[in-house]
Amino acid sequence: MIIIPGFLIALVTFPGVIVHEAAHLFFCKLRRVAVFDVCYFRIGNPSGYVIHEVPDSFTSSFLIAVGPFIINSFLCVLFCFPALVPVRMFNQPDPLCYFLIWLGISIGMHAFPSTQDAKVLWQQAKKAAANFNSPEGHIEQNGHVSGTIRYAGGETYVLKGAPATRDHSRGVRDLTRYKGHIWANGIFPSGKSFHLFTMKTHGFDDVAAGRAGAIVDGKLHEITLSRASQGWLESADQLFQPFKLSFESATLGRFEVDALELFNSVPLALTFPADHYWSVPTQSRLKNMTWVNEQKLMWRWNGETGYGHIERGNSRFASTDRAWISNFQRREIG
């Protein structure tokens, strides 16, 4: 059995590689997905690529992934059919016919999605099947804020480089399957920071959606919350309890961020059906109300102490639960 190296196949059928990547690019443009870099052909693995932002819908992901199948297949038939007719039916070979047959077959050989295309599409399909909560767009950024807050009664607060979060969304969210979530971030004196959002939904055993990132030494690293991580809000007595967030990263390895102290809780009591915005989840139809809690807290990461924000919720929380209500008293920061 003779094994032909992949780069040789790509070299012989390079028109197919070019059309394959051009098809990805075409559907990125069609679906208004930002493209960061394009390589139509090279000697290496992969033989071509298109780097683009994460699409905001499964429809866009699907079209971008299967775009080469649509376009390459069409061009394969377009080039091969008229070239095969004189060769096979009339036995009149012509160099141009053989060139078109080679061109069509080369393009057709690269019609199927690559392994990476299929992997990304499968991941997006699982998220789309489990998560009915995503908006059309969502931006979360860590930073610092300085300024002055003045109240009508004359009370004034001056902020100088205080940890802050920018949270902006657009589009409607359907949160009828909301089960629970963690939204957390932290900023540290050295300049490193992290940001996390993860959610569970009813009818799905694992985490339905989420993403996390960390900035260390000025570089952005993709991180993932471990399945066994603490931090999920499951009972009333956990609201002010310290916990550990466990992360995994291809570049940073495994690490933990400790929540040392959680400060005042800002509760949101939500009546069904709630407006479909983040932090306003729609709970089970069997209940009249659910809770979402926002808190400031102190973090520790590799011995360094920082501050941040956390928002957690659980659709099982009942509005009349006295254990929860007792948590919402004023707590001073020591």
* Structural shape: elongated
Estimated helix fraction: 25-40%
Output the strand order for the largest sheet: 5-6-7-8-9-10-11-12
Mean pLDDT: 80
The biggest beta sheet is recorded as: 8 strands, antiparallel, barrel
Q: What's the order of the H and E elements? A: HHEEHHHEEEEEEEEEEH
First-residue to last-residue Cα separation: 73 Å
Overview of this protein structure:
- The protein has 334 residues and is α+β, with helices and mostly antiparallel strands.
- The protein has helices spanning 6-12, 14-30, 58-89, 95-109, 115-130, 322-325, and strands at 35-39, 49-52, 137-150, 156-170, 178-187, 193-201, 209-216, 219-225, 243-249, 253-271, 289-301, 304-314.
- Helix 3 runs antiparallel to helix 4 (95-109) and helix 3 crosses helix 5.
- The strands form three sheets. The chain has an eight-stranded antiparallel β-barrel.
